[in-house]
Amino acid sequence: MAWLKSLTQRRIFWPLVALAVLMCFNLFFTPHFFRVEVKEGHLYGNVIDIIKNAAPFMLLALGLTLVIATKGIDISVGSIVAISAGVSAMLLGGDLGGVPKNPIAFAMIIAVLVSVLAGMWNGMLVSRIGMQPIIATLILSVAGRGIAMVATNAMIVWLYIKPFAIWGQGYIFGLPVSIFVVAGMFILTALATRRTALGLFIEAVGINPTAARFAGINAKNILFWVYAFSGLCAGISGLIVCSTVMSADGNNAGLGYELSAILAVVLGGTSLNGGKFYLMGSMVGALIVQTLTTTIYAFNVPPEIAKVVIALVVLIVSLLQSFNFRSMVAGLFGKKVVA
Amino acid sequence: MAERAAIVEMKKISKNFPGVRALSGVDFRLFPGEVHALMGQNGAGKSTLVKVLTGVYRQDTGEMLLEGKPIRPESPLAAQRLGINTVYQEVNLCLNLSVAENIFIGREPMKLGRIDWKTMQRRATEILGRLNIDINVSRTLSTYSIAVQQMVAIARVLDSSSKVLILDEPTSSLDEGEVVQLFKVIRKLRDEGMAILFITHFLDQTYDISDRITILKNGEFVGEYKAKDLPKLDLIAKMLGKELSEFSYTPGSKEAKKASAESKKGANLVLQAKHLGRHGSIAPFDLELNEGEVLGLAGLLGSGRTETARLLFGIDGADQGETFIKGKRTNLNSPRAALMHGIGFCSEDRKNEGIFAELSIRENIILALQARMGIAKYLSKKQQQELADKLIRSIGIKTPSANVEAKQLSGGNQQKVLLARWLATEPSILILDEPTRGIDVGAKVEIMELVLNLSREGLGVIFISSEFEEVIRCSSRIAVLKDKEKIAELSGEAMTESGIMHTIAGGK
Amino acid sequence: MKSLIKIDPRNLPVLVTLGLLVVMWIVGSVSFIGFFSLQNFFNLFIDNAYLIILGVGMTFVIITGGIDLSVGSMLAFSTMLTSSLLEKSGWNPWAVVPVVLASGLAVGLFMGYIIQTFELPPFIITLAGLYLMRGLCYVISIDTIGISNQAWQDAAHAQFNIIGNNFVSLGVLIALAVVVVGIFISRSTKVGRTVYAIGGNEQSAILMGLPVARTKIMLYGFSGFCAALAGIVFTLYTLSGYALNGQNMEMDTISTVVIGGTLLTGGVGSVLGTIFGGLVYGTIQVLIVFQGTLNGWWTRIAIGFLVFLFCFMQRLFEARKTKGKKEIKAATVAAEAG
Q1: Distance between CA atoms of residues B358 and A208, nearest Å
Q2: Which of B353, B351, B334, B352 is nearest to B343 (CA)?
Q3: Architecture of domain B260-342+427-508
Q4: How far is CA B419 from the centre of its chain?
Q5: In angstroms, rounded to a whole number, what is the distance separating the alpha carbons of residues A28 and A14?
Q6: Best of C195, C323, C333, C336 to disrupt the B interface by mutation (most B CBs within 10 Å)?
């Protein structure tokens, strides 16, 4: 059964298994869980919902994967989502007649641009000033929400511009538009990191920053741009969020997204210690997190409790990754663990 | 004068790690009222022996006696309680706390449930006074030089129950004046009856301060001598494992001498350093390297060879002096800059500065080349594979495939991967720092031949090794370093092991 | 004594914060009528008593180089628990207080245990704690629970006059008590000094035989305890328990600690500085209120900017220190051979 062994050794195997198990678990309680019908010209069903709702997280996870691969972290992504949503909503305007204040493309580009700038800010703090990533991104996560609230004048901005809704609510070829956006970003990122030396350099910086420097890699630049990229992903994610609910709430948009995104990356196989990263794994990880959330809702549990479950999962996954914990558990069974 | 009984006796200590015999049947004695220097080159087992004594490791066989009673300390704290105290090179204190606090933390004098700062400061001043040091004990430790920090570290471990003081490379970061101060303190403690174990690389300091010297080599006990009975040359010889009489005239290899002769006519200067130096790292030096030449850097451990290499490769910034590559003044302020100028550097610390454990051998090999080519021009998998295979074959890396993770390789093979990485960049200058360390004898020869071949093809090589034999074999010229300074250059017939050793022993 | 008053460089950050506070008050008093009054100053304490208490706990955690992102949710949970026990279960206030405090202590110790024993990053574990506690709030109740308990109401409305008609609340007194305890611990107890040692160099602290593991676990317990206490004070302020309380409070607290001069990298900091940091935070909010036209959320941006400024200065300071290490020499060394 050699093919089975080599299958289980592929990094994507276990995340896919976890996803499948979760989905099947849902089957017990929602018998039509896997049913997909065609309604109103597009695919419709629980699974489709999961994919659609996971889209913003998949984008965040994409950016975070590269950041975490360099041994860093970005907890400002939630705030950047809020900033992006806020900026785009303000530029489009809440005119009840559906007339945008600025061209939609313009508003979207500016929102993304601001998000990239935010990411660059993080990148500058980490790579040039040498701040620890947790602290550097903490600053933006504090100030960012303030920026978002100032941009929206602390009001929830409602949008009535129909064309804009396509990003979060529309369908192409029966599938949600947002998933195409995610797919597009995924392909671009995968090409950029695997078809060029970028992926290799990122992994090298994460595995051994000193050796990377000695080998002639410009580690500072790499660090700068991964944070900028994380900002980009958060910006696009913010547009989708805004488009889905046709509003921007500076206070609540993106709240708690960073934890879910980090969990997605970790579940996907990328280690918090940096090094090898798995983009596809993070995508599956985001689907797992979303499925988990959906499963919890199926039990009629309020959203805040859902976050508790996510938190517990993070705790369990962290413990499993801890060498000391595995040793302790193994010790109970009289076995030894290799680091 | 009757000899006092040894306060510490270590008998037939052996300690093995997976794949390494760190210590085999080593004897060691410490006497009260003496400074005893422990000496040896790389892999001699000095630090392992000390770690056994201080409870970091437990020996596999052998016993330890303290004042005649057997001991088996299980941790540094346990050793401290027995009266065995250590002061490390990286001062293990908290720089953000005051001097007095560093001395007393964990056992601060209390009064009415509060820390009694006044008493603490008074007693700290007293203890330092015992060492003839008069400083403001309420200032933060970080405001004082490393020399003072070390004295504070010594003060911390001194109290009535201290019997043994171990000083692990205490002078590495000190300048001459500070060393004098430290030695005054050490002598005072010695005269009060303390048994002091002193570990250092600096030859002159050893003779300055020690009463007794024990030499280890490759985990084995070579001998224990009174310092006044052991001439410097003998010490060096024993550390290297040679008998003086064994030194016959060992000429450098024919090729190297030929290369040296050839390079003298119409010298093609490829690298030149003028008065290049870095405070605290290496004294200003002049260096010239010609095309097709192998310049060897010879010296004992701690003499400054790696520091020299780091300056030349741009890892450390120079405080003074200039570097010229092919006649042009170049600012080598980063490894990347050096790489772009055609310099390669094979570090001796492959674990922390070289190998990417989780990347494949192939990726490890092509990395520097790729870094030079830039992000966009990515070598195709096929190109990477071909290049990697070619180098794996030519250098003799033992691996089933180039796609194995580097961490699976043995140390020696990892070293070869590192070498392959730099060879892949086809540099014009290659700096090799201990390229043969941890490699089996057959492979050592392969590498040395490789080095000679490379020089024949026009590559300028700087070859650093602790094995004088190797340096002589490969080099057309040898720069001799001692105590963080370049003291001489040897060429032609002067390039012999005894020649090098005499230079080291006699210089300064 | 000698010529000039020498400023111990360790006190410099606190003085900077104090200076900042003074400058802000001067600017405010000059720009706005009615700004400068003793009661306004006391209001700073009344409105931010909870923040000061949170800050004391967080200061210790950050000095050791850790971080506690769960304090805001812990505060919210303790407001929920307090109001629920008082109103829904009809408990006696004297029984409620110890139970709530114990819950904070327990949660903190648990997180500290996991962080220390399994060597997991504090931010991940306390971030998980954040969501856990927030969720537990909702388990108790989704809606606000108003507190009508008479004793509690009396305590909430109590005014303690200091200097004429200017008063402070019970919360302020509690906060000041916590501050005094905090300063005492940090300056006069072994535990407190161990905290600084761990922050300075954890490896050294272990080698010096200090009880590092035990201390670190206790710290997170203390932070949880302070968060619970801050929650109780918050209920005195709002007379209710509300699950959405404390959102972003962890960031506010961390900002307060940083502005107070504590280094996020650990080893340097003071409780006193944190107080000033809290006052700066409060003053910014007052300034914005008086300004009238600015969105209240500018506070967030201003705080973020101040945190950046302080972190940046800290970085510069650190960079200069490592460069010029060798240049700093000791004072005299007696030349006698003895």
Answers
A1: 10
A2: B334
A3: 3-Layer(aba) Sandwich (3.40)
A4: 21
A5: 22
A6: C333
Per residue in B19-38, pLDDT (tens digit) is 678 889 999 999 999 999 99
| Chain B residues within an 8 Å CB radius of C189 | 114-115
Q: Which residues face A298 on adjacent strands? A: none
Measure the CA–CA gap between C327 and C280, rounded to whole angstroms: 36
**Residues C312-331 as b or e (16 or more Cβ within 10 Å = b):** eebbeeeeeeeeeeeeeebe
Please identify which residue in the block is written with the tokens 């790729």: B370
Distance (Å) from the C-alpha of residue C155 to the closest C-alpha of chain A?
32
In a domain, C283, yes or no: yes
Kindly list the distances between the CA atom of residue A229 and the CA atoms of A132, A192, A240, C257, in Å, as whole numbers in the listed order. 18, 12, 17, 30
What is the three-class DSSP state of B353?
helix
Q: What share of chain B is helix, strand, coil (3-state, %, to 5)?
A: 40, 25, 35
Q: Tell me which residue has tokens 């305007």.
A: A93
**CATH fold match for the domains B8-246 and B260-342+427-508:** yes
Report the C-alpha gap between C172 and C164 in whole angstroms.
Answer: 17
- Asked if residue A259 lies in contact with residue A285, where contact means CB atoms within 8 angstroms, the answer is no
Q: Which of B97, B101, B117 best tests the C interface by mutation, with the highest count of C CBs <10 A?
A: B97
Name chain C's partners: 3 or more CB pairs within 8 A: A, B
Per DSSP bridges, beta strands B34-39 and B212-217 are: parallel
When CB atoms are compared, the residue of A149, A302, A310 closest to C131 is A310
Give how far Cα C97 sits from Cα of C51, C70, C100, C223, C229, Å: 19, 20, 5, 17, 8
Domain ranges of chain A: 54-258
Contact A214 B315 (CB under 8 A): yes
The verdict on residue C13 lying in a domain is yes
SS3 C309: helix
Residue range of the domain that includes C309: 9-321
**What does the block give as tokens for A296?**
């919890």
The CA distance from B88 to B76, in Å, is 12
Quick: pLDDT tens for B413-432: 888 899 899 999 999 999 99
- Residues of chain C contacting residue A307, judged by C-beta atoms under 8 Å apart: 131, 134-135
Pairs of CB atoms within 8 A across A/B: 74
Instruction: Identify the burial level of B480 via C-beta atoms within 10 angstroms of its C-beta, where 0-12 means exposed, 13-18 middle and 19 or more buried.
Output: buried
Q: Domain limits of chain B? A: 8-246, 260-342+427-508, 350-426
Average pLDDT on C109-138 reads 88
What residue type is B241 in one-letter code?
Answer: G
Say whether residue A329 is in contact with chain C using an 8 A CB cutoff: no
Question: If chain B, 508 residues long, is cut into consecutive pieces of 10 residues, what is the mean pLDDT of each piece?
Answer: 76 84 89 92 82 86 90 84 84 88 88 89 90 87 85 83 87 79 89 90 86 90 90 82 50 52 62 88 90 89 87 90 89 91 89 89 93 90 92 85 85 84 92 81 74 84 86 88 89 84 76
What are φ and ψ of residue B38, in 5° steps? -105, 120
Tell me the β-bridge partners of A188. none
Return the amino acid letter for C289: V
**Yes or no, beta carbons of B353 and A211 under 8 Å apart:** yes
Domain presence at residue C306: yes
Q: Say whether B105 and C210 touch across the interface (CB within 8 A).
A: yes
State how far the Cα of C119 lies from the Cα of B158, in Å rounded to an integer. 33
Give the count of domains, chain C. Answer: 1
Q: Which residue has the tokens 């929102």?
A: A111
- CATH topology for B8-246 is Rossmann fold (3.40.50)
Q: Counting every residue, how long is chain A?
A: 339
CB A221 within 8 A of CB A21: no
Contact B106 C331 (CB under 8 A): no
